[in-house]
């Protein structure tokens, strides 16, 4: 072969491949549905060993797809986690930390590329139904971030005048319900919201059955305050929280039923997961992260390891469990590969895990995953089977029960004053610190930490990152 032709093929073939979508039986780019719940615990599905919550539709989804047992939200709090899901970036790279409050002058920078924008450029129809929480100023709302349709609330469902700490701590205004750019209601009761989101989703599928589409179903539940429609009230052995999960399961069932009705099930990638772990201070209104340690608001396993189910009939072999670590940042590049879409121009942190999903590889394309919290503090790193934490302060109930009937218990704060290392295969509950017995692993993870601190910073060490980008800001 001519040398110049050989070099040309080396350069061009990868580009051609990146523009090809996964071939399906319908010979068109596959649809993509992401169902993203709020504050759901690792154990809160039947197929993830819940002892008292029935989720037949999600169990069936897992049976027909794959169950990811080491899947992580990118941060243990609302806005940061959602930014990571939609952009493929660690949220601190984007300047996003914590959860945006109503009327904030900040949001997801419009210069960032969301999954919706990526797919919209590739001819997809796009919609979000549910919770947005990436800035409620008009400039930052979904219509300016790649979504053609929107129905839902702009931030968390507890940011309203009926918050249990309204007055002493908060001063929330009315909770608006949006239809695209228009406020169509002010919510005083959220009992029908899950049903409305489901109906909007099913309608969107029907209207776009002949077009490739991206549907982002961002349920506000089971974040407190808990609400459920009459059709599931009192149906669970787990009380109101279980009722809420059963209704979310029903919602997924309705979406799957629509895919079958329109004969597009095999041409649709469905992803189900949650934004972070359970809000344990709410006790009987919170989920369960068992057998993991702690919950929402910590970088410990219960804060960020989430139930995750992937289904793509005809392209992913069914009924498998995958233990390889993955994170929400990997969804955008994986979806890009599946749909033949162009990746964002700006650097992202995620990598395609398509080969892991299909079983052609069992090795993560990521050397490690980084667990940031608070403003920009590096709390932990997942490296292969190991999770290591650096000294930091975190919240805990310290063995006490959470609150009752929608009222939270008060957290305590503990300081982790030394490095802690856990082998998550042998010790999923993180009960035995084995740092002293594994100096080579500690040294390796320390070197990873030094590298990421240069790139993304670490407030615990007063290090500013070289690659951080500005948050969206309204002057």
Q: What class do helices, strands and sheet pairing give?
A: alpha/beta
Give the ordered list of helices and strands: HEHEHEHEEEEHEHEHEEEHHEEEEEEHE
Q: What does the main sheet amount to?
A: 11 strands, mixed
Determine the strand fraction and express it as a percent band.
15-25%
Helix content: 10-25%
Mean pLDDT: 95
Put simply, the count of helices is 10
Number of strands: 19
Distance between the termini: 59 Å
The dominant shape is: globular
Task: Give Rg in angstroms.
Answer: 22 Å
Low-pLDDT ranges? 1-18
3D architecture notes:
With 475 residues, this protein is an alpha/beta fold. The protein is 24% helix and 20% strand. It has helices at 3-18, 56-63, 78-87, 115-120, 193-207, 239-261, 301-304, 331-339, 354-358, 439-456; strands spanning 31-37, 66-72, 106-107, 125-131, 149-153, 175-179, 182-187, 213-218, 268-274, 305-311, 320-322, 326-327, 369-373, 377-383, 386-389, 392-396, 412-416, 420-423, 472-473. Strands 1, 2, 4, 5, 6, 7, 8, 9, 10, 11 and 12 form an 11-stranded mixed beta sheet that branches. Strands 13-14-15-18 form a 4-stranded antiparallel beta sheet, with helices on one face. Strand 6 and strand 7 form a beta hairpin. It starts with a helix and ends with a strand.
Summarize the structure.
By secondary structure, this protein is an alpha/beta fold. 24% of the residues lie in helices and 20% in strands.
Sum up the structure in keywords:
4-stranded antiparallel sheet, alpha/beta, 20% strand, 475 residues
